[in-house]
Design brief:
By secondary structure, the protein is mainly α. The chain has helices at residues 2-12, 19-36, 45-60, 66-78, 82-101, 110-128, 131-137, 143-161.
């Protein structure tokens, strides 16, 4: 990770680093991790580094783009940062819902993307042990999605009670 060391050293000396530089690094890391086909991504330090780069990109250039939050949520979840992932899933859902409300959806099935993001947020809240937060979101789910989250909550609560 000499490239990371170089970027951090540049910032420590007061130099501005372009968003594209960080994005290029995180894309390269994503390709490396995908090529490794390692099912232990949670333990792969490259995934944590990629998540750090995505966080830094958000700090450099905040955006309401739901796709950015979605990507960050995917990486956070993959790295085992479930609480953080859940919050990013919610940011993605909010972005999709705001686009729909403004009459400017980027995708024809934007509501489906929002609903899926809520489901992922619930799942990752449960994975992080934040079952109350997941339960709060239950009212936003319907049908099979709601049933799956209810089953996860019941499983978690049954396990936690033992």
């Amino acid at each position: 990770m000499s490239e990371i060391r170089e970027v951090v050293s540049r910032m420590m000396s007061g130099e501005d680093v372009e968003l594209d530089t960080l994005d290029d690094l995180q894309v390269r890391i994503a390709a490396e991790v995908a090529a490794a086909d390692d099912l232990q991504a949670e333990r792969d330090p490259r995934v944590a580094t990629r998540l750090d780069l995505l966080r830094a990109m958000r700090l450099l250039e905040p955006t309401d783009d739901p796709a950015v939050a979605w990507n960050r949520a995917c990486v956070a979840s993959e790295a085992g940062h479930y609480g953080e992932a859940a919050l990013d899933w919610l940011a993605a859902a909010r972005g999709f819902e705001e686009a729909i409300a403004a009459g400017k959806p980027d995708l024809p099935d934007e509501q489906d993307w929002a609903n899926t993001a809520i489901w992922h947020a619930c799942r990752d809240f449960i994975r992080s042990g934040a079952v109350v937060s997941a339960a709060v979101l239950l009212k936003r789910l319907t049908g099979e999605d709601r049933g799956e989250i209810l089953a996860m909550l019941n499983e978690h609560l049954g396990t936690a009670a033992d």
